[in-house]
Write a sequence for this structure.
C-alpha cells in the first residue's frame, strides 16, 4: 500500500480558531479522506505552534503562564477540529519533549555542518508575524507588510544559518520541478523573491527578550527562532529522527525508516516564504530530503477586506456549523474557493452553495429512494444499471484529476454536475410514467438501478467533503459503508434494501416540495 503524508501549518496557540485556520485544515482533511478512499496509508498531521514572543505576550496579557495558555488553546483547536469532522492522525504541540529534542538535534547537525555563526543583528521585527522585515518591506509607514501590524527596531546578538549559500540550489530545484510549488502563480512569486540576494537566517533570539522557546543546544542564553522550531514539527511527526538514539557525528544518527519526506505541505500564501525558502534550505543544510510538494492557498476575505480581529469581521466556522452542520461548512469552503486563489466570504453565497446540496444532491437522493420505495417496495431491482454510465465515468475521472491535482473546486464541481445530470435523467425517463405502463417494467427497473448506482458513486465522491451525509446516504442505500473507489466497478446494487428517511440536507428556508418527488 502506498503511503501519503500531508501536513497543515501548526496554528499559533495565541488566538481562537477562525475560518482561515478551518479552511487549511478542511482542505487537508478532504485530501486525506480522498487518499484513504483511494487506498493509501495516510498520515495527516496538524497541531499548534506554541513558542515565541507572540505566545509569551498573549499569556502575560491574560495573566497565565505560556504553557497554561497553550494547553487551553491546543484544547480549543482540537475541539474545533472535532466539530468540523477533521480526521487528523496526529496533533503535534511544539512544547512536546520529543519535538524539543528533534529541534536541538537538527540545529546541532547544521552547526556540525559548518552552517551556523554568531553575529550582531539590527532589524525591524514584527511580533505578529514573528519575523524580521527589511526597511524596504515595511515601507515609509513602518508596518509589517503582511498584516499591517506594528514592527519594532531591534538590535541584538543572534545565531545565523548560512541560508544564502543555498540560493542557487533552491532556484535549480524549483526550476527542475515545475510542480513542486503549486499553483504556478505562487511558484513564480518564490522565484521572484529568489531573484534578490538571499540573506542568512537568524535562528535564535536572546532569552533575555524571549524566554519562551527551545534553548540552543550550545548556547542556552538563546532560544530557537520560533519559525525554525515550528517548521521542524513536520520532521518530528514523521519519526525520521530518533532523539533518544546516540547522537551521531553530525547532530543526529541515521534516519529511521519514516514518513519523511512529506508528500505535501499545505499552507496559506502568507506563509509561503517560510515554507518554500527557509524550510527547504534548512533541510538542504541538514542533508535531508525536501518535501515533495508545497501547496499555497489563497485568503478568505470579506467583501474585499481582510478578515481581522481588529475589524471585527472574522467569520466563525463553528457558528456556521451550528446552523447548517459541518458538512455544509466544508462544502462551501471547498466549492467556493478556487484552490490557490483568494475568495470572498458572503453569507448569500453560503446559502446558495447549501441550496445546491439540498436541491441537487439531497433532492436526487430523496426522489430516487422514494421511487424505489413506491414502485419496488424499497428493494432495488436486480436489473443492469445501464444509464448514465458514460457520464459517471467522465465525472469520476474529472473528480479524481481535480483532487489529485489540487484543484479541488473542479473535482467537486464534477461531482455536483453528475448529481445534476442524474436529476436530468429522472426528468427524461419519467419513471412515474413508466410505472403506469406494465410493458415498460424492465425500463423502470433499469432506471431505478441506475439511480441507486449513481447515488453510491456520489456517496464515494462526496465522502471526503461531506463525510457525515455521505455515510448517511450510503446507509439509506442499504450499504454497510461508503464504497471505496476500487469497489465501485464491482458494486452490485440489485437487492439492496433502501430507506427514504428525512431529507439529507434539510432546507435552509421553507420552499415548496419538488415536482419529481410529488409526482411519483
Ligand atoms: N504558526 C504559523 C505557522 C507555522 S507552520 C510551521 C502560523 N499560524 S497561524 O495561526 O497564523 O495560521 C496560519 C494558517 O491559517 C495559514 O495557512 C494561513 O494562511 C491561514 N489563514 C489565516 N487567516 C486566513 C484567511 N483569512 N484565509 C485563509 N487562510 C488564512 O502562521
Amino acid at each position: 500500500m502506498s503511503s501519503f503524508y500531508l501536513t497543515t501549518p501548526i496554528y499559533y496557540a495565541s488566538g481562537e480558531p477562525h475560518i482561515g485556520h478551518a479552511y487549511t485544515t478542511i482542505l487537508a482533511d478532504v485530501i486525506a479522506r480522498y487518499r484513504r478512499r483511494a487506498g493509501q496509508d495516510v498520515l495527516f498531521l496538524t497541531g499548534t505552534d506554541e513558542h515565541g514572543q507572540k505566545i509569551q505576550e498573549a499569556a502575560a496579557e491574560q495573566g497565565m503562564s505560556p504553557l497554561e495558555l497553550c494547553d487551553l488553546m491546543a484544547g480549543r483547536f482540537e475541539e474545533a477540529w472535532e466539530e468540523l469532522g477533521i480526521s487528523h492522525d496526529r496533533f503535534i504541540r511544539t512544547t512536546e519533549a520529543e519535538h524539543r529534542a528533534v529541534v536541538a538535534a537538527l540545529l546541532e547537525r547544521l552547526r556540525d555542518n559548518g552552517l551556523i555563526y554568531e553575529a550582531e543583528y539590527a532589524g525591524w521585527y514584527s511580533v505578529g508575524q514573528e519575523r524580521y522585515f527589511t526597511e524596504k518591506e515595511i515601507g515609509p509607514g513602518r508596518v509589517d507588510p503582511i498584516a499591517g501590524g506594528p514592527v519594532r527596531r531591534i538590535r541584538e546578538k543572534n545565531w545565523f544559518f548560512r541560508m544564502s549559500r543555498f540560493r542557487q540550489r533552491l532556484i535549480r530545484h524549483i526550476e527542475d520541478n515545475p510542480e513542486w510549488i503549486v499553483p504556478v502563480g505562487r511558484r513564480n512569486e518564490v522565484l521572484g523573491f529568489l531573484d534578490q540576494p538571499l540573506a542568512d537566517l537568524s535562528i535564535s533570539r536572546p532569552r533575555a527578550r524571549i524566554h519562551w522557546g527551545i534553548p540552543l543546544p550550545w548556547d542556552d542564553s538563546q532560544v530557537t527562532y520560533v519559525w525554525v522550531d515550528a517548521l521542524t514539527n513536520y520532521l518530528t511527526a514523521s519519526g525520521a529522527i530518533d532523539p533518544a538514539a546516540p547522537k551521531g557525528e553530525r547532530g543526529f544518527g541515521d534516519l529511521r525508516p519514516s514518513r519523511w519526506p512529506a508528500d505535501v505541505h499545505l499552507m496559506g500564501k502568507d506563509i509561503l516564504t517560510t515554507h518554500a525558502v527557509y524550510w527547504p534550505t534548512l533541510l538542504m543544510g541538514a542533508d535531508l530530503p525536501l518535501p515533495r510538494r508545497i501547496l499555497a492557498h489563497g485568503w478568505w476575505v470579506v467583501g474585499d477586506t481582510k478578515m481581522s480581529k481588529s475589524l471585527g469581521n472574522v467569520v466563525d466556522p463553528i457558528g456556521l456549523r451550528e446552523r447548517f452542520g459541518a458538512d455544509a461548512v466544508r462544502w462551501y469552503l471547498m466549492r467556493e474557493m478556487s484552490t490557490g486563489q483568494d475568495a470572498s466570504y458572503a453569507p448569500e453565497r453560503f446559502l446558495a452553495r447549501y441550496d445546491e446540496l439540498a436541491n441537487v444532491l439531497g433532492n436526487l437522493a430523496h426522489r430516487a429512494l422514494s421511487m424505489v420505495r413506491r414502485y419496488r417496495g424499497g428493494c432495488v431491482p436486480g436489473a443492469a444499471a445501464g444509464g448514465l454510465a458514460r457520464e459517471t465515468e467522465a465525472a469520476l475521472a474529472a473528480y479524481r484529476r481535480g483532487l489529485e491535482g489540487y484543484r479541488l473546486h473542479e473535482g467537486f464541481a464534477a461531482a455536483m454536475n453528475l448529481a445534476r445530470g442524474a436529476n436530468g435523467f429522472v426528468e427524461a425517463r419519467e419513471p412515474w410514467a413508466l410505472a403506469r405502463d406494465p410493458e415498460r417494467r424492465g425500463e423502470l427497473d433499469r432506471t431505478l438501478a441506475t439511480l441507486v448506482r449513481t447515488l453510491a458513486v456520489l456517496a464515494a465522491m462526496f465522502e471526503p467533503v461531506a463525510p457525515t451525509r455521505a455515510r448517511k446516504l450510503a446507509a439509506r442505500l442499504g450499504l454497510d459503508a461508503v464504497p471505496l473507489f476500487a469497489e465501485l466497478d464491482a458494486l452490485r446494487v440489485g437487492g439492496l434494501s433502501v430507506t427514504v428517511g428525512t431529507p439529507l440536507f434539510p432546507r435552509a428556508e421553507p420552499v415548496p416540495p419538488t415536482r419529481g418527488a410529488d409526482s411519483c
